[in-house]
Amino acid sequence: MLLMHKLVFVAQTGAAAVLYILLALSVYSVGIVIERWWYFRKRRLDMIATSNALAKRLRAGDVAGAKRELEEMRAVEAEILRDALEYYADGPDSLQEIVQKGIRHRRKSFESGLIFLGTLGNNAPFIGLFGTVLGVVAAFKELGAASANMAAAGGSGGMGNVMSGISEALIATAIGILVAIPAVVAFNLFQKKCNDIEENSAALANQVLAVMKSTKNPKNAHKASASALDDIGQTSRLRPAEVNG
Predict the structure, then answer these.
(1) pTM value?
(2) How many CA atoms lie within 13 A of 110 on its CB side?
């Protein structure tokens, strides 16, 4: 019985504590949302313009110019490609490995705060439900005490108190859901931003790799076309002799 009395006392004080916890988590999540929004806003990337500028510089053999183009950008993708271009002369395989390394190295930065938002979105309703259960326990405890007092006084009642307590307890569940919904929405939006960073980095790397291969192949293609032209010329010179013969 002593343990039950202690648990009931915890329930009476815990319901209000849950509301304060949810309020604190909500304020913290709003801070993370604002910080992440500002982080991604400052690092927006014009993918088409960047891709075209890189291709133009690299086709002209101006690797240093491509690096300067990327240095003027604050986007995460630009940082990754700028590091990768340091290995431009080492070939496509080295460049691709550096791009993958750059993505892994910066993932902690651009995914910062997402674990908290995802965890809060999944668990805030349960925290609110826990507060509701504690509030209901406290309400029925008050009902029992009120019924005992009313019976001793020769009256009846107490249902008004328990209904009021239950309605207050349900507020915890409502607040838990209210905290969870913005956290889930923000988590999904920022997760999409993180996926875009990885996809854009891979796409820009493919652009660079394509330029690297195209700058090597034209030499072989030119030799092959010149050899084919020689063969055609020799064939055209032999045909009149064959006819005369």
Answers:
(1) 0.75
(2) 27
